[in-house]
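Have a close read of the entry that follows and walk me through the local backbone shapes. See right below:
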Amino acid sequence: MVLHTMNKEYETFAVQRLKSQNIGYLVQPVDRSKINLYFGKKECLNVVKLLMDRPLNLLTPEEDFIVGAMLGYDICQQCKRFCGKKMSA
């Protein structure tokens, strides 16, 4: 799965490109001018749909860990990040 934060003006182009290649995607507004575009396997996007009912910065430490792992972030860094968030909560 991939997450790309981009200017909203490119949304139509990006979505058309993903559709033309039969790649699943999910769009999440960030603010008035930016979006988060998730794309990849349907199974992963289904998890994102269940978790992303709010902005990324409002995810619980557990949800943040799951999304980071799904995006392929370094698992040791994710563990450090998770522990830091849990200890400061």
User: Anything to note?
Assistant: The chain has a mean pLDDT of 95. The longest helix spans residues 75-88.
